[in-house]
Structure formats: C-alpha cells, structure tokens
Specification:
Layout lengths: L6 H4 L3 E4 L5 E8 L4 E6 L14 H6 L1 E6 L18 H11 L5 E6 L2 H10 L5 E7 L16 H12 L1 H17 L1 H10 L6 H8 L1 H14 L5 H11 L13 E6 L7 H7 L6 E6 L10 H11 L2
Helix pairs in contact: 5-6, 5-10, 6-7, 6-10
C-alpha cells in the first residue's frame, strides 16, 4: 500500500487571518532570513511543493513562501472572486510577515496571479517570474496547439462545470483512498505530454511529491479548481501596461499544456519581459533541479 506522508501533516501549518475574516494558508521553505520570493501554484494546486525543505532555496539563501489561493489547501474560499482580487490577500500576507523587498512568480495558472500582482505597482517588488505560465486566450478559446485534455477542461469549466467537478471529486477520492491507483493511472495517461514531461511523470519520487501537492489542493473541496479554470479561460481583467517590474519568462518550447506560440504572442503585450525559451522542455520546468536553481537565481536580489 502506498502511504503518502509529507510536511502538510508533519510540520506546523502556517496561515494568517485576513481583514475580511478569511484564513489564508502559506508555507515557507529555504532559510528564514533569506531573500523572500513568493511562489504561486498552478491550477489546481497548493502551497505544498516539497516533502521536506527545498535544498536549492537553502543553498541560494532564499526564503521561499508558497501560498494557497482561496478555496485551496488551508485558504478559505472567496465567492465570485476575480484574478485581481488575490492581490489584496498577498499584500496582507506581506504586511503580516513584515516583508519588504521581494520577488514573486507563478507556475502555470499561477502566472496570471503573478502578473495581476505586478500590475498593482507594489513599490518593493523586485522581479516577477512566469514559469510555464498560462496565457490569456484570444477570443476566449484555447489554441488548437494545446493538448486535447486541457482544451476539454477549459470547455467543461465554461459549459458543463458540474461534469468537471465530478471528475475532480473522483480524483480527490483516489488521492485520499487509493493513492496507488491514482499513481498508476497518472503514469499511464501521458500520451498528450512531450517527452521531457513524460519522463517527469514516470519518476516515482516526483510523482509522490506531486500527489502531496494535489491532495492538499483538494483538502476542502474540488470546486475551486473548476471556478479557477473558468477564470483563466476568460479575459483576466489585468491592465498589463501598469506592470513596471521586470518579468522573467521561463517556458518550454515543447509544452503541450501551455503551448509556446500562444505564450509568445501574449507576452508582446507585457513590458520588460526577459525570455528564457527552452528547447525540448515541456511544462514541468520546476521539476528539473538545474532549471529550478536558474529560475530562483533570476528572481533573487
């Protein structure tokens, strides 16, 4: 039997109380007195990124702070929220943790929230990272280059959200009751991924870490994942011209979940982008130790 254990149970849970009474969950990795970098998870996702501490953050002297968005992990949901609404939650966390100069990045769907925060013009924001980021769709529809499972997900979120909720609830049930079945299934269903991503999915240690991440994403319910996919599939409500901080864009040229051609066109609307396009790399860039180190270094003071 596969038993999942990780720091969502063995270490102290971190959360703050927001002004509106909601709880916001977060997790710290690296070193307490290091340079603060905020990490925003994908969709669905959670603050649990590692089964222990992150040795790369420790080595580089980074205080990595990963945050649960509303409805995920320890964070209470926020009804009818917009992407831009998360800015205030992040600002409250920064204030309560007494953080001054910092950087922020988003992975996959989290990229939208990193850009939204950057558009708020925080005076102490050093840099912003987009890592295998989602992008705003032209005409509200995902590009044909995107793999079929992802396109179906966006379609269901808009047209048949109840069906997608059912699918996520089934995933949650497997994660909590039959993790070995979930692991076996996820290792088989990889034909829509590029070669490098398929290799990641075949690594059992990496898969177990991903499963901890997903278990925590569905801690409260599977509802938020559907709502957020709908948010990402519509216009984001961000004025990109308001972004002043430099943007570090990391993207795999073989990414099938967030295809690079759409991303390249999207970032022409964003000022100060420094691009790192990676040949033969896919979506799971942060699972590559060397790339992870480079990503963190690009955001460090």
């Amino acid at each position: 039997m596969l038993i999942l254990t990780g720091n969502e149970n063995s270490e102290k849970q971190n959360s703050i109380l927001l002004k509106d009474g909601r709880r916001l969950g977060y997790k710290e990795y690296g070193v307490k007195d290091g340079f603060p970098i905020m990490g925003l998870h994908g969709t669905p996702g959670s603050r649990i990124w590692f089964s222990g501490n992150d040795p790369t953050s420790v080595e580089l002297g980074i205080r990595l702070i990963t945050i649960d968005r509303p409805g995920y992990g320890l964070s209470d949901e926020k009804k009818d929220r917009k992407i831009i609404d998360f800015n205030e939650d992040i600002n409250e966390l920064i204030h309560q943790l007494r953080i001054t100069r910092f950087s922020i990045f988003g992975v996959s769907g989290g990229g939208a929230y990193a850009l939204a925060f950057a558009s708020g013009g925080h005076a102490q924001l050093l840099k912003v990272g987009m890592v295998a980021s989602a992008f705003e769709f032209e005409g509200g529809n995902p590009p044909v280059e995107m793999c079929r499972p992802n396109r179906i997900g966006f379609y269901l979120a808009k047209r048949f959200p109840w069906l997608l909720r059912f699918n996520y609830r089934q995933q949650k049930k497997l994660l909590y009751e039959k993790p070995e079945v979930y692991l076996e299934s996820s290792q088989k269903q990889v034909s829509h991924l590029c070669k490098s991503d398929q290799e990641v999915m075949q690594n059992e240690a990496t898969q177990k870490s991903m499963m901890l991440h997903m278990r925590e994403a569905f801690r409260s319910s599977a509802v938020e994942a559907v709502s957020e996919l709908k948010l990402l599939g519509n216009l984001w409500g961000i004025d990109f011209s308001d972004i002043n901080a430099p943007i570090e864009v990391w993207h795999g040229e073989a990414d099938t979940l967030s295809p690079i051609n759409g991303l390249k066109k999207f970032i022409t609307r964003i000022p100060k982008c420094n691009t790192h396009f990676l040949k033969e790399k896919g979506h799971f860039l942060d699972e590559d130790d060397d790339l992870w180190r480079k990503i963190l270094l690009s955001l460090k003071d």
